[in-house]
Amino acid sequence: MQTASRSATPASALRSAWRSSSLSLPSPPHTARRATAVLLSQRRALSLSQTSRPQLNAASHQQQQKLHAAPLFSKQTARNASSSSSSEALDKTPLYDLHLAHGAKMVPFGGFHMPVLYSGLSVSASHVFTREHSSIFDVSHMVQRLFTGAGAAAFLQRVTPSGAEALEPHRSTLSTLLQADGSGGIVDDTIITRLPDIHGCAQFYVVTNAACRDKDDAYFAAEMDKWNAEAGHETLQVEQEQLNGWGLVALQGPEAEAVLDHILDHTAKTDLKQLLFGQSLYSQVKLGHMRVSSPLLISRGGYTGEDGFEISIPASETVAVTEALLTAGPEKVQLAGLGARDSLRLEAGMCLYGHDLNDATTPAEAGLSWIIPKERRSADAGFYGADVIAKQLSPKSKGGSGVQTRRIGLIVDGAPAREGAEIVSRADGSAKIGTVTSGCPSPTLGKNIAMGYIQDGFHKAGTEVDVLVRGRPRKAVVTKMPFVPTKYWKGIAPA
Amino acid sequence: MASIARCLRSARPSGFSSLVKSSVSRPIAIRSFSVTSTNAIRKYTKEHEWIDLSADNKTGVIGISEYAAKALGDVVFVELPEASKKVKAGDAIGAVESVKSAADINAPISCKITAVNVLLEEKPGTINQVPEDDSHGGGWIAKVQVDEEGVKDLEALMDPEAYAEFTAAEGEGEDH
Which residue in A351, A323, A305 sits closest to A443, CA to CA? Predict the structure, then answer.
């Protein structure tokens, strides 16, 4: 059965109305365009608003105190003010009712009502559960985009440093949208997945942050207009669709494979062991009562550092698929919210846009040069800011410009250092040398972890610095990330 | 400063109050009296600190409310006040940190810190277990010396009943 009987919320049903008819068509994913849109997803989900990040010199000491002492979720709520009236404008994911039924505490986030934690499981308990078993995260608030057309790959190679043309079908890459002004600054971070060609035409599934939705929409609209109007691009047009209202569910943790395998429709002989980190496939899943889902794009990866999957699901099936995953039982899988997602991604050393990345950060400064393929590290690579970034990738000693500041990890003694805390030199009269952009007590390590930006020269692992927490210096050590080793599934190691 | 109240407003989502209500079977303030010396008067701030003032109005004990402790989640670090420091009402004297947030502890009244609960350095989770217990082994934060100004400051604070109403109303305001 292609059409799940469980309906989503009225709001999401409305939003996805255009899709419901096509869902009833039992088309194989690689022949029907809409069904192909049953995609994969990516990491990150938390992105807060485009909130001001404390700039190095902008905030007074007191303001900084305020910022770093502010709780994680204050930034999101700030955007929606403290009154409940503003929440009327918030959207709901297809899982909204399911969250409430499971005792979720909802917060405004990226324009949606999102669960931050569930009753009976604190943020740290949920965090630990994810590392030991598995958790389901609703990341449907993220923006799922589909780029198609003969020019899609070349277009993506202009707006990102990724090698879209060389990307194989069902392979994903972390990427960044780059400022059109050539500064190299990051508009948003994203996961790009190439899907199988349709009628000889390339397709890319691109997931961007919810908090950047408006900004990214404007960016893509302007860039596509520009691209499509350029001379020579008559046969290299690019189109975009957004899968608004679709569900996106992340299943993360060491038991994720077993939990997913339990509901896979094995008539297609899908073997999850063959699906490695960064790869994706289409599969139907069993929904109970003899029903199966439509073909869902399932990708291996996530935003926790654990093995896991992200599943893109039509709105009408999102609840049923999530409930099917939960049938594995509460000892294997639990729902988890934004709270645990944030501490998990921080342990995994992953960036949160609006905090660890912003319009002024370049991939080189952010320690993301690994996302740029070797053949695209030259000034003439053709993406926005290629010249700036290419220079930064090469140190001054080798003729480049290097970077002034770079993203690093810290382990902080005593008090947790939060966003906005100043990093100061221990040697050089307490001169300010950087700023913390994310930080929390690590439930896995029992230490305070943080990431931030530090002056070039202080960035080497083992460098001892101080971090000011509520005005008091705390000892901190620059530490390699991830803080907790990642456990991605990369296949069975050769004996 | 990011007071506890501010942290709660932001950490506490629309459904937060239902969590508190469902997980606490009785009004918080009533329970909290049971661990307080019968001679003391317990008052609460809108920022969710409590203070017990001794019968002679000379000394007091400060802590954070059970309502706040629940809302903050698992407390993993407590920054204790500086002993012998003189503070005014509303001054930040310390902080409580959970995985998801950090909140300042503000002085409920003008006072001088005379002792701090060093147990919390070893066992910050005590704040979650017995936040309103001012005895040995409890989750109290600091002991203070109070002068006339401090006693006067006390007038602005809420008694347990008023605080229970205050937190209930705060919760409802957030509900949908």
Answer: A305
